[in-house]
Each structure stands twice: as C-alpha cells, then as structure tokens.
Amino acid sequence: MQLITFLRARQERKPVEFQEWYLNRFASRMQQDCPFVLRHVVNLTEAGPEELRTMHDSDDPQARYDVVTQLWCETVSEIREASARQLNTDLLDWADVHHSYSVQERVVLDKSNAQSNRQNGFKLLRELIFFEDLSDAAAKRCWAHHGNLAVKIHVGMTRYSQLWVEETLSPAPLPARGISELFFPTHEDLAQRYYESPRGREQVLHDTGHFIQKRLPRVYSHEHVVKA
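Request: output the structure for the sequence above.
Response:
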C-alpha cells in the first residue's frame, strides 16, 4: 500500500526553502520515526511546460503544490501511523496545504528502465475528483477505459499508474477518488511528446470530461529516492 501526500508551503515561506527543508531534514527524520516504511520518495515540483497548459489550469499562484511524498508500507495501520507522524507540528509550521491519501496502484504502462536515473525525468501527478453520481465501480471502469486511450496518445511517457484512493487521511479531506501518475524520461518527451497530435489532445480532454468533474493542480516534479 502507498501513502501519498500533496504539500504547499505557507505564504510566508519560500517554496524552494520548503523543498530543501523537507528533502534534506524532514524526510530523514520521517524515515527514522517510521522504520517500517518499505520505500520513500520525495517529489520536488517545478513549473510545467507552457505548451501543456489547458483550460483546467489556474493562473492563481496559490493553486500549486511544492512537495509530493510517497511512502510504501505493508499494512493499513502502518499507513495511518506514517500519516500521523508526517502531519506533525514541524511540518504544519511550513505547509498550509496537506492532502494525504492511502492508495492502491494500478499500473497501466511500464516501459521504464530499472537502470535509468529517474531523478532526471519528470513525474506528473494529479488528484482527480470524479462526478458524484458515479459509483466507485463506474468511476474505475471509466478510468480504466481512459487508460487504454492515454497509452496511445501520451506517446512520450514510459510509465503510467492510476492510484485509487482507499482512504483520505487529511484533516480537511477533499473528495478526490483517484490520482494519476505519469512519467516522462526527458523534458523533450514531456513537452513535445505528451500528445501524439492536436487531435489526440482533444480526444483526451473529451474522454476525461465524461467522468472527471474537477482536476486539482497538476504536479510536474523530479523524483528523489530517500529509501529504495
């Protein structure tokens, strides 16, 4: 199982300083406090390519995340303990947004090379709010169908996972039921090969409009492995 948390620095804090603090100080402390964590990844965000902006992207500078963390554990109780330890006073002094979820991963595509340096690539993450009248079964079915299209259209990606939210662990929960995770090995693959064509772009937007009610800020990030 996986715990994934989206974090944004407080207004009085500089995002880059928050990123440095989390990666270089807090992440190692988390690992010490939670020795049961099997794998630990910190994703540091950056601005995405301008050519990939869509109608769903906000111009509000506060509509962003600065750090996204991923921790893998064996049990639900370990996931909950890791989340409780993560959302402590030190972190809350730095971050004013913290969306935390227990998720199950469905790998749709994996062409990644285990020997490659993923830190140089780009990981895209986004919380998805499905239409309220869709049951979990219907939402999963629509999303799985979309996965087949995404593999054909996003020709530059080498890995694509759909993370289904099993439990929301945030103090102020959002109704997100899914999180998409895409990986592109280079900036060129991301910026130039995200869509195979303008028609493909329209197909993706049309298809997702059938089951996604709202998309939260898209995260463009580089992966830093704390524990492999």
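The mean pLDDT is 93.
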